[in-house]
């Protein structure tokens, strides 16, 4: 074991940055960093140090992912997704909540409503292009609105909601199958 804290922090930060592209849970990021530090035979930094690094790196990586997705959406796509988050439906809830509602038991009238619903989703934008290159595990976590999505980061607050909406849209399209 070698005591070299500056080098240990650099190795841990690099490992966490790479892992944060696919993992979102801080303990997972810390575990990846610990593996790299052990491989390098370096003395481990304190848990608080690693925890703070994981939170900071995760927030930065998520903000970069959110910014990239929002850039791909373009102004029109962001406006359409933003409308889902701000417009309230007849029950006083956002239209985003409607996207998350599961389909009901099959009937012809519900089938027609589902087809109309999917047309509305298709009109929002091409989520496949928006989410291209983002790890499925990250999309799933953003879609769930996971505790670890980095939403406390100021840049990520609204962008994270838009990405969450895009993730739900992508999941709905995948569930719908070919049309």
How much helix is in the residues?
over 70%
Q: Judging from the principal axes of the Cα atoms, what is the shape?
A: elongated
Instruction: Provide mean pLDDT, rounded.
Output: 77
Task: Supply the helix-strand structural class.
Answer: mainly alpha
Total number of helices: 8
The Cα radius of gyration reads: 20 Å
Our estimate of the beta-strand percent is under 5%
Number of strands: 0
Euclidean distance between termini CA atoms? 59 Å
- The low-confidence runs, each spanning 5 or more residues with pLDDT under 50, are 147-161, 171-179
Summarize the SSE layout with pairings.
Layout: H1 5-19, H2 26-39, H3 47-86, H4 95-100, H5 108-124, H6 127-130, H7 136-144, H8 156-176
Question: How does this structure look, described?
Answer:
The chain has 179 residues and is an all-alpha fold. It folds into 2 domains: 5-59; 74-176, no CATH class. The chain has helices spanning 5-19, 26-39, 47-86, 95-100, 108-124, 127-130, 136-144, 156-176. Helix 1 packs parallel to helix 3 (47-86) and helix 3 packs across helix 8 (156-176). Mean pLDDT is 77; it is low at 147-161 and 171-179.
